[in-house]
Amino acid sequence: QLAQKYDPQKEAELRTWIESVTGQQIGPDFQKGLKDGVILCELMNKLQPNSVRKINRSAQNWHQLENLSNFIKAMGSYGMNPVDLFEANDLFESGNLTQVQVSLLALAGMAKTKGMQSSVDIGVKYSEKQQRNFDEAKMKAGQCVIGLQMGTNKCASQSGMTAYGTRRHLYDPKNQILPPMDHSTISLQMGTNKCASQVGMTAPGTRRHIYDAKTGTEKCDNSSMSLQMGSNQGANQSGQVFGLGRQIYDPKYC
């Protein structure tokens, strides 16, 4: 898969660029021409003088590997990112020629970024760092700002909300209830319990008549509620048998 990513067109461009900078011929085989590291070290010295102080021209393997290692170190000191560098065996043993090609292209881009003039337009310039300096007052003002990354409730605001615990009147315009008289009134659009309405409900604590429809008991008024609605003043139903008729009345209404 790595071999399939190798670009012959980029190889031709790199060949032309290296030969134009160094003035030396690589030869017909790109890998064999760079394997000993001599031309690469000459290239590095052209881009940054004296970056490779010793170039071994011996045919021994360890001398050639030393040249490649010195070239890679020189690329790092030239300012290239560590991820763009290759290893000596990637070129010496043809282990990963794709990475070698990527590294040389990055080297050409770094040379272009540093203002190196060449007859071959190759490589992409590195992005320049844009540094901004702010005064002390600006920095202190920024400490009072909380970014949206801190979390929002879909940009909702609490404008006009009353303090927590304040008694509020709920109204619904659809039921012909008068509009609010002050800011302590909140419409049902502010939030509902699954669209439930409080129309016809009595205030908390109001005495209620409880009836059971199964026994034929009639409701006395709108304040009557079935047993399913809850309990009468906290009374429990311990010992009761569901289904039997039971009437609880209030002399005030019945």
Structure notes:
The protein is mainly alpha-helical and 254 residues long. It has a domain at 8-114: Calponin-like domain (Actin-binding Protein, T-fimbrin, domain 1, Orthogonal Bundle), CATH 1.10.418.10. 31% of the residues lie in helices and 4% in strands. It has seven helices and four strands. The chain has helices spanning 8-22, 30-35, 38-47, 61-78, 88-92, 97-113, 136-142; strands at 169-171, 185-187, 210-211, 225-226. A two-stranded parallel sheet has the order 1-2. It has a two-stranded parallel sheet with strand order 3-4. It is elongated and about 120 Å long. The termini are far apart. The relative contact order is 0.07. The model has no long low-confidence stretch (mean pLDDT 75).
Give structural attributes.
7 helices; two-stranded parallel sheet; 31% helix; 254 residues; mainly alpha; 4 strands; two-stranded parallel ribbon
